[in-house]
Specification:
The protein is mainly α. The protein is 70% helix and 0% strand. The chain is globular, with a radius of gyration of 21 Å. Bound molecules: alanine. Residues 43, 45-47, 122, 126, 234-235, 237-238, 320 line the site of alanine.
Amino acid sequence: MPRDIFARKPVSAFTADLEEASGRSLKRALGPIDLTLLGIGGIIGTGIFVLTGVAARQDAGPAVVASFALAGLVSALAAFCYAEFSTMLPISGSAYSYSYATLGELFAWIIGWDLVIEYAVAASTVASGWSGYFGKILGQLGIHIPVAFSTGFLAGHGGGMNVPAFLIILAVSSLLVIGVRESTTFNSIIVVLKTAVILYVIAAGAGYVDATNWNPFMPFGWHGVVAGAGLVFFAYIGFDGVTTAAEEARNPERDMPIGIIGSLLICTALYIAVAAVITGMVPLEKIDVTAPLAQAFLDVGLNIGASLISAGAIIGLTSVLLVLLYGQSRIFFAMSRDGLLPPMFARLHPRYRTPHLSTMLVGVLVAIVAAIFPLDELARFVSIGTLAAFVMVSAGIIVLRRTEPDMHRPFRCPFVPALPIACILACLYLMIGLGLVTWLRLGIWMAIGLVIYFGAAERAIG
Ligand code: ALA
């Protein structure tokens, strides 16, 4: 249990933990292409498939294109900082482990607690997006799910419980319990499929673009573009997931930066193109907010295309759910082994050797959140939580350059401290655009985290 808030965990201890847990060293089998595909696999999801429509309608109008560019730029700044950390400490557990190794226990706890937003709450959001496309494909088959069973009651409009979102989380969690996780081959297949669907949207949709739909381009002003960027920032979350594979990279020094920055660049280009096509295909007031890509194709009469998009989204989002829920269980596992969470979170199933109790507990909570909250509010919360984590990671880069100047840094983030400072300011800028209510939610979440931490510390001492 926590005692010394500045206690640091030596890097060698992380490696020893992992070897003990797996009974062997993790195999270093992943090259630059695998890592880039791993990044894309975690990135492309509800953000592009759903939030494009939400951000265009609610925040930015056709200038959602600029929102995607802005959010991509902020992510790129963060990517350089992540790349330095991930090559300096090629250990799994991402930002949580970095901060434990460098900044001490309290920071590790704060980041670990914050990452719950980035993984668990993001899984709720993605499940909600999954449900939208599931409903769309059923609708094409003539089956209509009543609003009471397809929308959470906190979303209003007669919502009750989002049953498909609830069930998909339970299904994916069950798969994780029995040890199904994404293999590199499986991931590569899904990435090719997702990318093909996105390229299809761009290529087939481009022919239906009516430039008058882009006018006015910025109906809600620059303020709307920034608010939209905060929301669609969600779409970029996942590139930092590449870092969790640092120990399995063949040549982490060279390949981690390629994987992180490469996957981000490819996704930025795809996102900007999709946003331009969708806002060009459909007048702003008609853009759908549950399954905008498929609906745009239905609107122009491309019904088979719409089904293909929905099917691609359903498969693609399922794989994002696997990545997020697996990542969450892995972070809780690490925190539990370090004594920051009860031992239950590290208990392995006798047969499947997976942290089954933690996976199911997280699964049920994530499913409940997905079933009752509106997607856009969840996404804003995830964005602000992740931006906060990026602020801490960037600050960590500056601190470490001073406190550990001689540590071996295979990839050095350029322009330190200017770049990390720019990253911090850019993240704060997007966070401000997300509005007061979202800040309040983050504040409450962090306050709960601190109460738990210091409560546990008190019990340990008392
Ligand atoms: N970036 C991921 C998504 O958009 C989380 O679903």
